[in-house]
Amino acid sequence: MRETSGPDLRYSAARAFADDAVPFADEFIKCELPATFIDDLKAKASAFEQAGAERTSSRTSHVAATGAIVGAVRKAVALVKQLDPIMKNKLRGDTFLMGEWNNARRMERAWTSKPTEVHTSTEAAGSAAQS
């Protein structure tokens, strides 16, 4: 059995509160809550749950699309590796077309940040002493 946590716990709590509030509805209404507050709470809990389900579905689609892109790029790189020697033989002597091929065969890479190096105070002191 799955343990309830996070958003699932909030959905369950909202539903339980709405169900538990039914016998006390008149008391809540006397405290200026609208007569529809239990139905409103259930509707909002359902809308929240639906939004969570849509988010999960979107993330699943995003992960699948990313996987498909990675696969397509790997295939393209493999094809370029096969095609490169053929093009070098075919375009030998034509520097213009060889330059065009070299430009076309380059794969753009996504920018990724490099991890920053963390220097301890003793490393910093040691490098300062060497200067």
Structural overview:
This protein has 131 residues and is mostly helical. The protein has one domain (6-105). It is built from 5 helices and no strands. The chain has helices at 6-21, 25-30, 37-90, 95-105, 121-130. Helix 1 packs antiparallel against helix 3 (37-90). The longest helix is centred in the middle third of the chain and has 54 residues, at 37-90. The chain is rod-shaped, with a radius of gyration of 31 Å. It starts with 5 loop residues before the first helix and ends with a helix. The model is unreliable at 118-125 (pLDDT under 50).
Write the layout of secondary structure elements.
Blueprint: H1 6-21, H2 25-30, H3 37-90, H4 95-105, H5 121-130
Helix pairs in contact: 1-3
Explain briefly what this protein structure is.
It contains five helices and no strands. The protein is an all-alpha fold and 131 residues long.
Average pLDDT reading: 81
The number of helices is: 5
Count of domain modules: 1
Order of helices and strands: HHHHH
Report low-confidence residues grouped into runs of 5 or more.
Answer: 118-125
Question: Beta-sheet strand percentage?
Answer: under 5%
Broad shape: rod-shaped
Give the proportion of residues in helices: over 70%
Radius of gyration of CA atoms, rounded to a whole number: 31 Å
What characterizes the major β-sheet? none
Structural class: mainly alpha
**First CA to last CA: what distance?**
63 Å
